[in-house]
Amino acid sequence: xxxxxxxxxxxxxxxxxxxxxxxxxxxxxxxxxxxxxxxxxxxxxxxxxxxxxxxxxxxxxxxxxxxxxxxxxxxxxxxxxxxxxxxxxxxxxxxxxxxxxxxxxxxxxxxxxxxxxxxxxxxxxxxxxxxxxxxxxxxxxxxxxxxxxxxxxxxxxxxxxxxxxxxxxxxxxxxxxxxxxxxxxxxxxxxxxxxxxxxxxxxxxxxxxxxxxxxxxxxxxxxxxxxxxxxxxxxxxxxxxxxxxxxxxxxxxxxxxxxxxxxxxxxxxxxxxxxxxxxxxxxxxxxxxxxxxxxxxxxxxxxxxxxxxxxxxxxxxxxxxxxxxx
Length: 326
Ligand code: ASP
Hints:
Layout: E1 9-13, H1 17-28, H2 33-45, E2 67-73, E3 78-85, H3 91-101, E4 106-108, H4 109-118, H5 129-140, E5 179-184, E6 190-196, E7 217-220, E8 224-230, H6 232-237, H7 240-249, H8 254-269, E9 286-292, E10 297-301, E11 307-312, E12 315-320, E13 322-323
Parallel strand pairs: 3-4, 10-13
Antiparallel strand pairs: 1-5, 1-11, 2-3, 2-6, 5-6, 7-8, 8-9, 9-10, 11-12
Helix pairs in contact: 1-2, 2-3, 7-8
The protein binds aspartic acid.
C-alpha cells in the first residue's frame, strides 16, 4: 500500500481538533507517531472544560474520576494501556509508558496509579467543581424516597442562600465521551490512542472499550488503524477496532469498514431488549474511525449526526460521519 499522500495525516473524534493539529505538526517535525498522538490528546486531557476525558471528566457513581486509555505503535506492534486509573491527568501518557518501558500491555487500578507515580506523573484531585456538581445532582435526583433531597423537594434555593420556592429539578444527560486519535506519517507508519473518563456515573472499577486493544483502538502497521467512541460495552462485545482493520485489510474502504462493523454491533446489540428501541433498532450511539496506511480515512456513527476531525496537507477540518441509521 502506498504512503500517506502529502505527508502526515491525523484523525480524531469530533472533540479532537487541537489534538490532530498538534499530532500532525509533531509528525512533520519527525516525532514518532505514537508520541505525536499521545501529546495531541494530552491537550484535551488537561482541559477542565472537556467533561469526557482527563481532568474535568465526569466521575463514577462514588464521585471518583477513573480514566481508561490505550496507545498502540504500528512499527513495533506494541501496545500499552491503563484502566480505572485515579488521580492522574494524562492517562494516555501513562499508557505510553506501559508501551515503552514494560513487557506488559495493560495495568489497572491501584497498580496503574503506582506505576504512574513511579514515572513521575503528578498526583492530583481530578474532580473539578463543575463535574462534582453534576455528579451530586445525578446522585440527588436518583430517587425522591431517599434522604438526598431533590432540588424540587427542598425548602432552600439551589445555592442554599435563602428559604423560598423550590428550584425545578435539573437533570443531566447520561454522558459518554472520549477522544480517539490516530496518525500516519509520510513513511506510512501508523499509531493510535484512545483516552476517556468513560461512562459517567459508572460502577466503580467498570472498564470500557477505550483501554481494550482491539475494541476501542487497534493498529496493524501493514493496514492502518481503527478506533471507537460511544457505548463501550457494545464495542467490546464485537471487537470493534480490530474488525475495522481486518475489513480494510480485505480491501473495504475506511468509511465502509466502519459501517460494516456498526452493522454487526447493531445486529448483536438488539438481542438485548434494553438496547432495542420501539422500531427494533439500537438505542445508543457508537462512532467508529478508520485510518488507512496510505492516509485514506473515514468514520461512521450508529445514530446521526456526528463528525470527525482530520488534519492533513489541506489543514484541520471537521467532516460529517456516515450514519448507519438515518
Ligand atoms: N467508549 C467510552 C466508554 O465506554 C465512552 C465514550 O466513548 O463515550 O468508556
